[in-house]
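Lab notes, practical 5.
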Amino acid sequence: MYRYKRITSLIVAVVTVFLLSVPGTVTVSYAEDDIELTAKAAILVEMETGQVLYEKNADMRWSPASTTKIMTALVALENADINTKMKASATAINSIPLDYGIAGIKVGEELTLNDLLNFVLIISANEAANVIAENISPTGRIEDFVDMMNREAERLGLKNTHFTNSYGLDEDNHYSSARDLSIMAREAMKYPAFREIVAKKVVPLPDTNLRKSSEWENWHIESTNKLLNSTSQYYDRVTGIKTGYTDKAGRCLVFSAINSEGLELVGVILGTDSYDTLFKESQALLEYGYKNYKFQTLASDGKYYGRYEVADAVDNTPVDIQIQGEVTHLLPVSSEKLQASITVNETLNTPFSAPIEKGQVLGTKTWYYNGEEIGTVQLIAMNDVEKTMSAKIRDKIIEIVNNKKLRIITIILLVIIIVFIILRVILRGISRRRKYRSRYYRY
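Output from the prediction step:
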């Protein structure tokens, strides 16, 4: 019998492994799991709110390499029209170190900001970043554009970011962090032009005043962000954003993706040892987010909440309560994690007393995720509740008794009445005595 059970178990195990290896045969449901990254720093956030889903050394200062160009593009889009013509100077081109990638822009060549951003963000052309810097700087000096980058970093509240150049050259005072890069990426993705460019897999080569599009050297036209080519059952497509590499920084990537439900996540990986590791861990981090978090509705507008007794109600009519408002938040899929992280504070103005008007706010309910408020709804009456006549009379008496002015007036009236009665009694007594005396003296 024991031998039979062992053979049966072995057959089941073999069949299970086989089924799992056949695509589409079995759907595997993933519970929340941890993720281990070799990257020196990382973060994963929700695009719209910046809600953090994962972080590792997120505030550690790190050489950002070419992810710097996210800020270059952001400042450019804030200060110039996308079709602005810009001219390349010798300084912008020749100041790039020999081992740093370029697009091959010529001195005196004129390109639009859109053309330059394509070069900057898709193939990480360093001289294109300098051309943008010179043309947007109010003085024409790259250093003054870098000052604009630092002012923008300050405006965004970036605590661990400082720039000394426009394209990512390793310098002592040029640094950022995973968290700061996620913030500037979210800000840049608000611009449709930026969003469109960082999703491209190939750079469009433009016509200029010095050449036709076909005359560019096209040895390097594909995006450096190979994550754009990735596929996953957890997200629909990768939407960006920017790679970076120097010997000091290692392999870096700021990336984003969106799923079929419209949930867009932004991630940052800094300091991996190879591009294979970089893209593998970036995809793993995205899948971690999509597997373990989703938007969940905790309260729906108009949903029935409950029925409650009402004191002094005509015919003992109860009040029905419904929810006004909605609370939806990005939350853990795991029921255990959700239960541990969500707390609720409910306030109902009980016991209820008539009268109650339809639509009257009778309480509130607030949800907290990891101690932070994520939404509040009002609890409102669905029906009118009238007060009985006896209760109205009782309340009027109580109102009079509790009204200081009315009490004083009432006391004065009572005193006047008592005085009047006393005077009446006295006057009657005097009247009787007069009558008595008049009768006595008559005889």
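Observations recorded by the TA: The first strand starts at residue 41 and ends at 46. Residues 339 and 418 are 71 Å apart (CA to CA).
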